[in-house]
Amino acid sequence: MQTPTPHLTLKEKQRQERENLILQTAEEVLEEKGYYETSMDEIATRVGIAKGTIYTHFPSKEELVATIFARDMQKFLQGFDAILEAELTPRVRLENIMSYLHEGLYGRRAKLLSSTYTGVDLKRLVNEKNGSIREMWECLISKVSKLLDEGKAVGEFRTDVSTRVMLFMMLSLFSPRAHDHVLLEHDLTPDELLQQLKILCFYGMTQNQPE
Amino acid sequence: MQTPTPHLTLKEKQRQERENLILQTAEEVLEEKGYYETSMDEIATRVGIAKGTIYTHFPSKEELVATIFARDMQKFLQGFDAILEAELTPRVRLENIMSYLHEGLYGRRAKLLSSTYTGVDLKRLVNEKNGSIREMWECLISKVSKLLDEGKAVGEFRTDVSTRVMLFMMLSLFSPRAHDHVLLEHDLTPDELLQQLKILCFYGMTQNQPE
Amino acid sequence: MQTPTPHLTLKEKQRQERENLILQTAEEVLEEKGYYETSMDEIATRVGIAKGTIYTHFPSKEELVATIFARDMQKFLQGFDAILEAELTPRVRLENIMSYLHEGLYGRRAKLLSSTYTGVDLKRLVNEKNGSIREMWECLISKVSKLLDEGKAVGEFRTDVSTRVMLFMMLSLFSPRAHDHVLLEHDLTPDELLQQLKILCFYGMTQNQPE
Amino acid sequence: MQTPTPHLTLKEKQRQERENLILQTAEEVLEEKGYYETSMDEIATRVGIAKGTIYTHFPSKEELVATIFARDMQKFLQGFDAILEAELTPRVRLENIMSYLHEGLYGRRAKLLSSTYTGVDLKRLVNEKNGSIREMWECLISKVSKLLDEGKAVGEFRTDVSTRVMLFMMLSLFSPRAHDHVLLEHDLTPDELLQQLKILCFYGMTQNQPE
DNA sequence: GATGAATGAGCATTCATTCAT
DNA sequence: AATGAATGAATGCTCATTCAT
Hints:
The structure is a homotetramer.
Chain A: H1 10-37, H2 40-47, H3 51-57, H4 61-85, H5 90-102, H6 105-117, H7 122-128, H8 133-153, H9 163-174, H10 180-184, H11 190-203
The structure holds a DNA duplex.
Domain HTH tetR-type (chains A, B, C, D): 16-76
DNA-binding region (chains A, B, C, D): 39-58
Pfam families (chains A, B, C, D): TetR_N
């Protein structure tokens, strides 16, 4: 799927477009209803095509969803590298990563992901896709870990907390989940929220002077 | 369901026991397989009763699961009050809440919850149940918020971060999700993890002296 | 299925009856339309039950059909033994076998069998059923072969034709197939037909005096 | 299809060739997999053309298969006439017919035929094709019947068996079916088998002197 | 004409729910 | 009250056929 050949015939272009439309629509429905409440029929209907057509693009529902995940993951992970490789202090780069996570693709998909990861064999499928997302994920983790260690080395970050736990904090705080809306549906703009989360991240809740 | 009448006939007691058994078993299966992969048949078989019997206790699968949530939530929320009302500094009470969350029921259910909350109309059901869990939740939030505000007032907590966001951080950090295992499957004991999370929570990642 | 327990509760009896009804009806439809043109829906409708009900008796279409085959085969093969063990000359026993084959279950099923044996994995299923039909079939063949050899030994049958080929002739002549109707739709009664086939079998087409 | 016009343009010739290729290939697949397990896709792929192209030659799957049958039948029936019209005794001509049947096209197709004849409306289609195969078949039967009657008249064949039944025996014995392999998978060469079948046909199983 | 993507009716199968016993 | 057989709506998937290019 999606072979990014530079020169496509008209038909191939249309086919690609339709495939993207299917992926987009499926993603929407999936986000709305979750894996099990999403039927191939509904996806087809929303796209405005016949059910069979989906099967000319994807061999099964699982594969379709796995493709969506893989695509999103990949996009998301690619965005990271630019940030990680910038010539900035560890602290600033980490802040940028936080911003990226905050607005991030990862957050939006988390709900879908968790609803799907239970029970179905998507894990296997997603992992088999695109040179294993898992590997990329591990790679990302190790890069960010290195960043944190760098920060520790130059005295920017505290050394009495495991790098892993720091990572965990970041991913937890900047990948908001569905039910968090209850908590966060108040008067803060997303940007203010981001700022405050960064403060908490770097300085904690205790009253002591930042900077 | 579960009318807590003090004096029950033998039959009524047996009925209660069975209902509890169903709830327990269903909870187990639900945790193992998620909402959609759990069938009424399997629950009944595991309990050792007929499928129909479940329907004499609960009118539908949704209602059964909603009951489980409501029960868990209630237990969980009750545990809070003791902690919140203790005669301790805001800071210490907050730490206790973190510990409670960390080991907590809430975390264990989160997976199930997220797998279920998508698509089915459980939200409505859960909310309609037991004088509205939602209200209790709001109540809890407001109590913890008050605690945080207290802490701010006595100078224990920083004032430049919204109380809501602090709450959010706590709930995010101390209610681990399934996929976090990837991150946390390393050499820390749960207690060490808890300690480190508290440090991060109170003092942040930046190198500066705690205490 | 069909455990022939002598004492059954009413429900169990009804269940058995229904199962038989399903088997019978399925057999009819199968004979009319063949494996692929037979839908579970039609079977259910003809029986007057819901489609799902069939699945409470048989786990799949294949299994249902395999059960039908196994049952028929077994009935048919059991009938053989009585004939083979009678205290009669080989020749007479062989004639009885011919009569049995002529009226036989085998013939009626042959059409269904051949329509089904192509492509589906029924072979495996049927063979796995009831202690392997195949073995029983082999056993039958060896018994009839022995009978033929006996006949050869006592000078009743010619010795210049392989026993296998004789068997083949019998099975071919006395297990009429569907398209034979074209040939045999004329003025002979089934009994006359049987008589004439026996004559051909024993004395051939050439003009020479029988007896 | 296959309009046997003597003078064809190049394109028409190519078209004919392709049609033959389709027929051949379809026949192969059909023999391998049976009617229902054969998909138009597979035929097209094996031929190396697009699925749609088949539909420019044949209006439907049924029609395609019917054409194959009709063609085979026709070839087969034509072979008969030469044998029937030879200047030989009825007995010898009959033997030749047996040999022809034995090696025959008819036998090879029987499996396919029976797998197909069930359920689909191919009967009608085949019969409607090519000036009705049925008629040719009837014609053949009547010719062979005449041959048998001739044989009866000159004292070669017995007169106490209906001509139809004799015909039936021949067709049954010399048109082997798939499942007969079980029986015949032994040490006889096809030729020996043919010889022995002829003996049985003419002289029967009973011990009495041939010739 | 050839192509092959699109179509959609059709099918086997599942499972929450009902209800006669 | 408990049972579990029966129900039937819903779903993923297939494949002969069509038709725009």
